[in-house]
Specification:
The complex is a heterodimer of chains A (157) and B (306).
Chain A: E1 4-10, E2 13-19, H1 25-32, E3 51-54, E4 57-60, E5 73-75, H2 88-95, H3 105-118, H4 124-130, H5 142-156
Helix pairs in contact in A: 2-5
Chain B: H1 3-7, E1 17-19, H2 24-33, E2 38-41, H3 47-52, E3 60-63, E4 73-76, E5 79-83, H4 88-93, H5 95-100, H6 102-110, H7 114-117, H8 122-127, H9 136-141, E6 145-150, E7 153-158, H10 159-162, E8 163-165, E9 168-169, E10 177-184, E11 190-198, E12 206-217, E13 222-231, E14 238-239, H11 241-247, H12 254-267, H13 279-301
Parallel strand pairs in B: 1-3, 2-3
Antiparallel strand pairs in B: 4-5, 5-10, 6-7, 6-10, 8-9, 11-12, 12-13, 13-14
Helix pairs in contact in B: 11-12, 12-13
Classes of the chains: A alpha+beta (157), B alpha+beta (306).
Chain lengths: 157, 306
């Protein structure tokens, strides 16, 4: 098996990585780039813990071969804070108790960011649809839904 | 039979080559060179889990997502055409699809999750040949067909003939590629509806999906024709043609709607499944969904936004 080079923009930084043909994006992010905020859960696109934003769309990075992401623009959970300050979504999650064990949190936050990027004033129903691809086994979802809604209001003001 | 094998889980997947052709001829060339060891990957939302579950073990993946021109939704000569790279999200959000094929928009927006809809393709969903596929059912009701291209040329196959068995279609994945799915855009006196029953609203396999395409003359209070598709109630996506015949040219009455719904339930063959429920339960759901689908179609023809 011969390695190939891919060039991806991760959280605003262009990086070149050598990958195997069958490497998946989730493993390249976690192991080659050390971005372990992206979690590997079910590895079959069901749990959403591996969610990242690829070219403006939230995707399950466990289903994306690394070579498919070549030349792509990626935002991981590490890219949400700016200059040491948490993103309003992150602040709302902390303040409103939307985190328990934390394993789903990166996927929830990136799903929410992707929603607010496209639809800054979502309804609660739209928030629920946006996070429907991420499973949380602790919170019962209510606090997450309310935190995302609160963050959208904060951003609006 | 391979359950024991499936228990051996490994984090890494394995294939030898990942190729990224820039054109359809190049793709067909690569398929031929690989002599049956290659599979096309578009979104990969079915293929990657199939490789993980050891249902498939291709040595070569041929990624067609860099081929230009295949990600468009077009209306040409009354036909709506979706290129092989059109995603479920694109379809769900398309004003053209919402206006001319609402059932497909509804099917695509109920499939999987945002993460799946953003990369998974409609053509991939159809080619995968699952009897309950969320876009295959509305496409079957819409009388869609696919364009299959090989080095020998191209052919169009109606979805009525495309599905052969669960996971099997008329396309030869070793040397052919589906480049497009197309269907007639619905006109003023036609409408369509998709309904889905699942354990939860997101990321759940359908217990049942139904799509109806209806045409009626409301002044004469009569149906013109109906096409009713159901899944998974047979090894392939199923058209309830006996039920359709009952509605053709019939007066719109409660009686005929109920009779049609019962007929759809009778002629379907839902199986008892741990995931989807008992045969009896699912048959009752078919009648219920068919009745609701037809009634909703009539409401839509009356101009109601339901």
């Amino acid at each position: 098996m011969s390695k190939e080079k891919i060039q991806i923009e991760v959280n605003g930084k262009i990086v070149t990585v050598e990958v195997e043909p069958s490497d998946l994006l989730v493993d390249v992010l976690r192991e080659n780039l050390g971005l372990t905020g992206t979690k590997a859960g079910c590895r079959e696109g069901e749990c959403g813990a591996c969610s990242v934003i690829l070219n403006g769309k939230v995707v399950a990075s466990c289903l994306i071969p690394a070579l498919k992401a070549d030349r792509g623009k990626i935002t991981t959970i590490e890219g949400l804070e700016k200059d040491g300050e948490l993103h309003p979504l992150q602040k709302a999650f902390v303040e409103m108790g939307a985190i328990q064990c934390g394993f789903c949190t990166p996927g929830m936050l990136l799903s929410a960011k992707n929603l607010l990027d496209q639809n800054p004033h979502p309804t609660l129903e739209e928030v629920k649809t946006a996070i429907s691809g991420v499973l949380c086994r602790c919170t019962g979802y209510q606090k997450i839904i309310h935190a995302i809604h609160a963050a959208s209001e904060t951003i609006r003001n | 039979m391979n359950q024991g094998r499936n228990l051996v889980w490994s984090k890494r997947l394995h294939w030898e080559k990942y190729l990224r052709p820039q054109s359809i001829p190049e793709t067909l060339e690569l398929l031929e060179e690989s002599g049956g060891d290659a599979r096309i990957i578009a979104g990969g939302t079915d293929l990657i889990p199939q490789i993980r579950n050891k249902e498939k073990a291709p040595k070569v993946l041929v990624d067609i997502t860099r081929i230009p021109g295949l990600n468009e939704i077009k209306l040409e000569d009354g036909l709506i055409k979706l290129g092989a790279l059109v995603t479920h999200s694109q379809v769900a959000e398309s004003p053209l699809i919402r206006e001319k094929a609402l059932a497909l928009s509804e099917g695509a927006s109920l499939l999987g999750s945002p993460q799946i809809r953003n990369v998974g393709t409609v053509v991939g969903n159809v080619v995968n040949g699952q009897p309950g596929a969320d876009t295959s059912i509305p496409l079957l009701a819409l009388d869609a067909g696919v364009k299959v291209v090989s080095k020998k040329g191209e052919r169009r196959i109606s979805l009525l003939e495309f599905f052969i068995d669960t996971g099997r279609t008329a396309v030869d994945s070793n040397r052919e590629m589906v480049t497009e799915v197309s269907f007639p855009a619905l006109t003023e006196n036609e409408t369509s509806v998709s309904l889905r029953v699942a354990r939860r609203k997101a990321l759940a396999l359908p217990i049942l999906t139904l799509s109806v395409v209806l045409s009626a003359d409301l002044k004469k209070k009569a149906f013109r024709y109906a096409r009713i598709a159901l899944g998974p109630v047979a090894p392939v996506p199923f058209r309830a043609q006996g039920a359709e015949k009952l509605l053709a040219s019939a007066l719109i009455t409660d009686g005929i709607i109920k009779k049609t719904a019962q007929k759809a339930a009778q002629e379907s063959n839902p199986r008892t499944s741990l995931l989807r429920g008992s045969e009896e339960y699912r048959r009752a759901i078919i009648a219920n969904l068919a009745e609701r689908g037809i009634r909703r179609g009539i409401e839509r023809l009356e101009g109601k936004h339901v």
